[in-house]
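Re: that chain you flagged

S.,

Sorry for the slow reply, it's been a week of failed gels. I finally had a moment to sit down with the sequence you sent. For the record, here it is as I used it:
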Amino acid sequence: MHFKLKRSSLWEKRIFYCCIAGMSVFFSFIMLCSWHVNSQTGQFLYDSLESIPYNDVAMILGTSRTDHNVPNDYFSYRIEAAVKLYKKGKVKYLLISGTDDPETSYDEIADMKNALHKRGIPESAILSDKNGNRTLDSIIRAKELLGLKKFTIISQELHNARAQYIARYYGLDTVAFNAMTPDLFISRWEVELHEREAKIKMLLDLYILKTRPEVSGKTGIQIPPDCIKDKIISGF
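Prediction finished late last night. Pasting the structure tokens below so you have them in one place:
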């Protein structure tokens, strides 16, 4: 006795297989974008204090001091990495670039400054840009508003790859120092997923949307007089 599949069942199968194929293509595209960014930037990322070259300025990419009301290790490890570079004599100035939102009392700049001061970094060695709302903004503003063409980037390795890609796209001679990555499985998984998505958006911003910083102009930038006197910042 023979049975024929109903027409609806055939269409359901076709839709199911199309969904599977579409998801496979989508995830392959995500992995390809991530591989492309990592392969183009790996040679400029450093884990060793001894081998990383000297630059006058190191940019610390901002993140929140706390995460769900508990200390954020991504924040503390970036501060620790910046302090190590400064005290090792690998940089002369630290540029903190992040978000300052008065409406929510969310101030990455103040938090990073306080953390650096507690670790013995003098005010004269700290530059700040409170309108570094995204990694793209931080890099472009450093180039176009501060006149920086050569500097060190400080963040975790996955984030550094994306930041380094943006910097190289804009013709900057940058390297990156990898801060420690928190050894928490769930946290790492969330960050890796976020970074894969962020890399796709970054490629769209650079090559298709030609995205510009959310805030234009030098507002929010604080430069110690020594930087201008030493001609570290060419735009002032």
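What I noticed first: The chain has one domain: 41-229.

Talk soon,
D.
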